[in-house]
Design a protein that fits this description.
- The chain is an alpha/beta fold.
- About 30% of the residues lie in helices and about 35% in strands.
- It has a 7-stranded mixed beta sheet.
Length: about 150
């Protein structure tokens, strides 16, 4: 996690006081990292019920104010409005649905978990100012939605 977390943190602005949605949060390590970096509100979402259960158990053991939900990317509902959406994805197919919870002017940070570039998918979904941060575990793209 050290290399990817460093790359991911480099792609993010200061998290102090911001709200963060983490899609594909797995066992909750990144939501906990973001909360520890000062995010005021963090919600983690994953399709895997087992991983969400692990994350929830850790939150119960050491509560820091993170909530977790199970949702499939293709059916993810609007999760509220967030300053930052971080998504671990293996396809650009659901970027529009994932980013629906992004505040105007907010930042979407996408970790491409399968080595594919997400730039074309981001552009097709109305994102601009795309910045690529290379990492051996998956490229990290950051982008802002056009108005």
């Amino acid at each position: 996690m050290a290399d990817q977390s460093t790359t991911l943190l480099e792609a993010l602005p200061d998290l102090a006081g911001r709200s963060v949605l983490v899609v594909g949060c797995g066992d909750g390590r990144y939501p906990r990292l973001f909360r520890g970096k000062g995010a005021r509100r963090v919600v983690g979402v994953d399709a895997d019920q087992v991983l969400i259960a692990v994350a929830q158990r850790e939150e119960e053991r050491d509560p820091i104010g993170i909530s977790y939900e199970v949702h499939q990317p293709a059916r993810q509902p609007m999760m509220g409005i967030f300053d930052i959406v971080v998504a671990f994805v293996d396809t650009p197919d659901h970027l529009g649905r994932i980013a629906a919870s992004l505040a105007p002017g907010g930042l979407l940070v996408v970790v491409a978990t399968n080595g594919l570039t997400m730039e074309e998918g981001l552009r097709e979904n109305g994102f601009q100012d795309i910045v690529l941060h290379r990492d051996e575990h998956g490229d990290v793209h950051s982008a802002r939605k056009t108005s």
